[in-house]
Each structure stands twice: as structure tokens, then as C-alpha cells.
Amino acid sequence: MTSLDINWVRDQFPAFAEPALQGQAFFENAGGSYTCQPVIDRLMRFYHQRKVQPYAPYEASRLGGEEMDEARRRLAALMGVETDELSFGPSTTQNTYVLAQAFRQWMTPGDAIIVTNQDHEANTGPWRRLADAGIEVREWQIDPETGHLDVAKLDDLLDEKVRLVCFPHCSNVVGEINPVADTAARAHAAGAFVCVDGVSYAPHGLPDVGALGADIYLFSSYKTYGPHQGCMVIRRNLGMMLPNQAHYFNADVLYKRFTPAGPDHAQVAACAGMADYIDAMAAHHGVSAETDAGRGEAVHDLMRAQEVTLLQPVLDFAKARNSVRLLGPDQAEKRAPTVALACEKSAEDLAAELAGHGIMAGGGDFYAVRALEAQGVDMEKGVLRVSFVHYTSQAEVDQLLNALEAVL
Fold first, then answer.
1. In sequence order, what are the beta bridge partners of 12?
2. Angle at the Cα of 212 (from 286 to 227), degrees rounded to 5?
């Protein structure tokens, strides 16, 4: 397979040429990625030329609406789903809350849902609140030593009462890539739907949601090189079954049913720049695929190969230090390059020390309080998290390792 042209990739991100950021290596990508040039170009064009109410017959309005539709159409195609199965909302957390309200209306007391304690709070908190409506909430628990979610333990929780299983594609502190297709198949066999939090996975390559079998797949465009939006795939059979959460006259439009707030027109339109970037990467690297989803998968593989190569030395460094506990797998192939370290020092203090070495990273709980507590992390210290994506360079990883050596 062709290796990633890192110089070409970094040329697509203006942040790497920004004078104010020179000498600083960005390792808080799990909190939000840099934005690629095509997204910035589209956002600027929209604000300059299309900043009117879209979908009217006059030219500026018509073009604005077309660009919003283009974003939905192209991103959905890259993920192997139908255009109207993708919708945009203010954030993934907000999207999940809206979905939870739909399930609250659809389910009846005595029904059950399954959540995990590996998740970011956005994909567990809203669902747990359904207990207020008499819904039974069952917790699929991680291994306290490894953070691993064992699918055999899921089998023990599944029965005819379960309507929904919620779990992450990968955790934002454990990092292990969970077997979505296998998990979805088990849940479906028991008659349950599946909601997958893909926020921590999608930055490493958009998945083929159609192939994964998820009924709901959530991720954030501001972590996938785009503007601040929550992206939500909900497959048609489930989406049209759940009660409408939007204006009554939008009930027949799938991509509007679970986005009651008015969309941010400019940001939705700018999301087409994410597809521009993926397509440009495919073209630059000579990728040929018969389908849009196939092209997306090839770009995903390019990104992952680059990340795995750079990640293993970071994991090896963490394993070798007695004063550091690495959360999640120590093999790069099994995880995303989102690395949480429980250290003897305060994580926030360590992040501040790293800033002095030109490393941009964070410390704390990262809204994964349940996962950290389940693994016995001292919450007063939290975890130091270093996270990167495909545009990270070898030189930046070397800078990180040198800085960690100095502060740990």
C-alpha cells in the first residue's frame, strides 16, 4: 500500500504554516483537530457570498442550500449510508440528548437499555437518565485492569427486554478499538438496536457505517478536520420508527426528525470541505475505488497506517516507565493514538510543564469520569492525555518523547 505523503498532508492544514504555532507540537487532537484548508475556504465563501436564508429561488440562497445538501450527500456516501440518513446538529452531546428523548417516548417501563462505563459521558449520561421513565439501565462494565470491553459479558446482559445497546467505537481514554460489527450483530440477534459513539474513532478515518451495521453512529466534525458540528447517522428503519423530535411538518424528512434546532447553515455547508479533503487525499495517493465508501475506506487505511507507525514508540515509552500507568492496549494496531497516562504527578501540572517544552496536551478526566474511576485512577490527579492523528509528524513525536522524558 502507498504510504502517506506527510508533507502533502501538512500542506492542507494552515495551522502548520501559522507563525504563532511554530515550534509547538499539537497533541490534544482528541479534543478537536486542526481544520483543513477546503473547510476554511468553504466557510469563508459561505459567509462572504451565501449568508442568507438558504433554499429560496434567488441565486445566493439557492447556492447556499445546494452546498448544505452537498455536504450531507458526499459525507453520507463516504460512510456507505443514504444521504438522508446523515444529519447535523450543534454537537454530539446535543444529538444524543435528542435521541434519548425519542427513545424515552418510544420505550415502555420494563424495557431495558445497555450502556458502558467505558464511554465519554455524552454517550452514557443521556441514556442513563431514561431510568427516570422506568427504563431498566444495564451497565456493560470494563475490565478494571485493562479497560477492555468483553463482548462475552455483553451476551450475559442481552435478553428480550433490551431495546438499545450504546457503546463507543473507541474510548477517549482507553483507546482500544472495539469490534463494532461483531457487537452490532450480537445485539441485533437479540432484537436490540445499536448506538455507537464514533467521536474518538472517526478522526482516524471515516468508517463504513453500512458495513459496521450500526443503527446510530455519532461523531463530531470539529474533531474530523471540519467546523463545530455534531454528525449523526441514523438508519432509516429506526429513524422513521422513533417519534419525531422536530417541527411536526418535518416529520417525514429523516434528516430533520432529530435536529429540532435550526442548523448552522455555514458550518453544515463547510462540512463538504471534509469530503474535499478526503477526495484530494485519495487522488494524490493514487487511490482508485469503485464506490465512494471504498474510497473512504482506502483513505482511512492510509491514515491508520501512518498513526500506527508513530504510535508504537509512544506506547513503548509509557510501558517502560514504572511511574506511569498506560491505560488500554500497549499494541498500536489495537487502538487509536489517544493515549491516557496515569502518573504520580497531577496531570494538569504535567500538561503545564509540557507546554514549556512546546507540547500542546491536556490533563484531567476528559468527560470520561466513569471509565477512569472504574480503572482505579486517582481522580484528584486525573490522566495526562496525548493524542494525535495522521498529520502528526515523526519530528513531533520525537519532540513529545523528549518532553515526556524531561517532565515525568
1. none
2. 65
